[in-house]
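Work Package 3 (structural annotation) set out to generate three-dimensional models for the target panel prioritized at the project kickoff. During this period the team completed the workflow that converts sequence records into discrete structure tokens, so that structures can be stored uniformly alongside our sequence database. As a representative example, we reproduce one entry of 393 residues exactly as it appears in the project archive.
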Amino acid sequence: MQYREDKRSGNRLSALGFGCMRFPNTMGVIDQEAADRLVKQAFDRGVNYFDTAYSYPGSEEALGKALANHGLRERVHIATKLPHGKCQSISDVDRLFATSLSRLQTGYVDYYLMHNIVDAAQWERLEALGMREWVARKKREGAIRSIGFSFHGSLVEFKKMLDAYDWDFVQIQYNYMNETYQAGREGLQLAAQRGIPVVVMEPLLGGKLATGLPDAARRAFSLVEPERHPAEWGLRWLWDQPGVTVVLSGMNDPAQMDGNCDAAETAVPGCLSLDERAAYEVVREEFAKSYKVPCTGCNYCMPCPKGISIPACFAAYNTSYSIGWFTGVFNYFTSVGASSTDVHLASHCIECGACKKKCPQHIDIPEELKAVRRRLQPGPVEPALKLYAKLPF
């Protein structure tokens, strides 16, 4: 296993992290014995970073039990997340954090994140509740070792978030198909320049870059390395970049675990050859043939007066055609802040035209946002999201 230093804490973190959102389950109930085996297998292969969240059904409990069953708690780093949209007071933060500790069977969290931040206003709301003081107190008590946020908004808002607080680490969605999506490569580099460790989520777009490649894309990769699995191509692209500290993978069977761990043993910054880099370009071109909106993610259209993350909406829309509808919908709802009380949907567009005037691709953005709404907002979305935000769990 390759390890990369978290320069803020001095921790040596495994280049491959275990994303625990997708533990094996039957009818939505996690198979604890299978989770135990996977956690032990990961540890034995050198993985020491385990990522979960309060909002992942059953995940915190399953991870806590697995670590306790194998006596591993003090030998690994746990990351979990606060569902900030459910916090109306600092007592809510206390309650949710205490629940996470109980589920995880631990007295502290190594890496604690504000979950699914899409704009700086969400952090400002937490600050108004007293979040800065709460974090400082938990750090003094040793209950939180490092504080950060997972991000799904625009590059503009990511830059604001970096300036808003002295973060210990950040987590972004990033892969070779999402190079300009959300924080993207520029956001990764900005964080790295500040010495902030970057954890990468969705490196394979929920597995689609491992199992859902078009035939032409598979051929492009196989011409360079015939025996390399598409999943390894996705992971190596990330590990090639020195600003990436940990790459999370939601491994749910032993073969996936071994394959990804094997890849993590050899992939280091600067590992890609010129031929390999060229292959990624061919694969991107194959996916781009399915795109409906020629958005390059330049962000010139931002900020939107209604807070809509326009490039993210278009990236999700294109993904729904190139990768799959479900993946596109998932990306869309994480980008619009669906888990918070302040949602910015494509349907909120007021057709002011400010974005259209600034688009170098001359995209009719208001019209294309209507297409995004029709494809990615099925049914009465807003009432459902408002109801979800009010649920106590």
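The chain has a mean pLDDT of 91.
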